[in-house]
Amino acid sequence: MHSFAYRLNTLLTFSLLLLAVLFGAASFLDAFNSPLSASSSHVQASAQVLKVNRFRRQLNGADEVSLTFNVSLDVQPLFTWNTKQVFVFLAAEYETPKNALNQISLWDHIILDKDQAKFQTKVTTKYPLIDQGSNLRGRKVDLILHWHVMPKTGRMIRDKLHLSDFHLPEAYT
Amino acid sequence: MDWQGQKGAEIVMQIMLVVFAIAGLGTGYAIGSFPTMMLTYAGGVVLTALITVPNWPFFNRHPLKWLDPSEEERHPKPQVNVAAASKKKASKHK
Predict the structure, then answer these.
(1) Min CA distance, A156 vs chain B (Å)?
(2) What band does B47 get if pLDDT is binned at 50, 70 and 90?
(3) What count of other Cβ atoms lies within 10 Å of the Cβ of residue A24?
(4) Rounded Cα distance, B91 and B87, in Å
(5) Better-scored residue on pLDDT, A154 or A35
(6) Pairwise CA distance, residues A56 & A59, whole Å
(7) Where in chain B are the domains?
(8) B62 vs B11, more confident
C-alpha cells in the first residue's frame, strides 16, 4: 500500500472479487424471485393448428409438412430482475417405429422484455417439419412449448409445457 | 503515505467497497433493476478509488521520527558485534 500503483492494484483486485460475489448473490436471489420451478403452472400458453399448408413427400422420400397455427403466450412470470431474455420455441414431437422421440422445432422467438412477453400471433412454420422417412400420414403430433430463461448471471433455466396435439391428414396435398 | 496512512487507506478501501456492494445489491434487488446495481457499485468503486488511491495529506499525519545523525556518533555501536563478526571470520578460515 506504499505506492499509487499498489493501492490501485489492491482496489481493482478487491472490487472485482466483490463483483463476482454480487453476481453470485444476484443469481442466488433469483431463486427466490421466481421459484426454481419457474414452471409450467406460471406460464400460460396455447397453440392450435389452423391449416396444413403443404404436406408432401420429398424426392428423397422424406415427408415434409408446412403448417399455419395460432400461438398465444404469456411468459411474463418468467421475467425477474436478473433475466436477460427468454427463448421460446414450439416443437413438434411424435413417435415413429424407428425413433421413440422425434423433436422438430417449428417456430421460435426471443423475448427481450417483460412487456413483450404476452402476445398472440398467427404464424406459419418457420422451419419445415421434415420427417426421417415417410411416417407422417395420419400421425399424432404433440405441440410442446419449450423455453430457456437466460439470466444476466447464473444458470439457465429450461422448462417445457405440452400445449396440444393434432393428427396429420391421411393424404398428401 | 506513512505507515498509519497505509493501514487506514486499506481499511477504508475494504469497508467502502463492501458497503457499496451491499448497497448496490439492496437497491438493485429492491427496484428490480440489474443496471442500478451495477451503476451503484461502479460509482462506489470510483469514489473509493478517489479517496484511497491518491496520496492525500490526511494519510501523512504520522511521519516517522528518525533519530538525528548526531545521535549515532554519541552512541557508537556496541563492540559485541565486531567480536561476533571476527569470530565468524575465524571459523571460515578454519
Answers:
(1) 17
(2) very high
(3) 12
(4) 6
(5) A154
(6) 9
(7) 1-61
(8) B11
Beta-bridge partners for A55: A65
Residue boundaries of the structural domains of chain A: 4-167
Mean pLDDT of B23-50: 93
- Yes or no: is domain A4-167 CATH 1.20.120? no
Given an 8 Å threshold on Cβ–Cβ distance, is B45 in contact with A25?
A: no
What's at A150, amino acid-wise? M
> Contacts of residue B41 in chain A, CB cutoff 8 Å?
18-19, 22
Which chain A residues have any C-beta within 8 angstroms of a chain B C-beta? 1-2, 4, 7-8, 10-11, 14-15, 18-19, 21-22, 25-26, 29, 80-82, 152
- String of DSSP letters for chain A: --SHHHHHHHHHHHHHHHHHHHHHHHHHHHHHHS-S---TTT-EEEEEEEEEEEEEE-TTS-EEEEEEEEEEEE-GGG--TTEEEEEEEEEEEE--SS-S-EEEEEEEEEE-SGGGSEEEEEEE-SS-EE-SSS--TT-EEEEEEEEEEEESSSPPEEEEEEEEEEE--SS--
Please report the pLDDT score of residue B87 as a whole number: 55
Instruction: Please name the amino acid found at residue A24.
Output: G
What global pTM score does this model have? 0.74
Whole-complex ipTM: 0.71
Task: State which residue of chain A sits closest to B59, comparing Cα positions.
Answer: A2
Task: Compare CB distances from A1 to B6, B25, B41 and report the shortest one's residue.
Answer: B6
Through-space distance between the first and last CA atoms of chain A, rounded to whole angstroms: 79
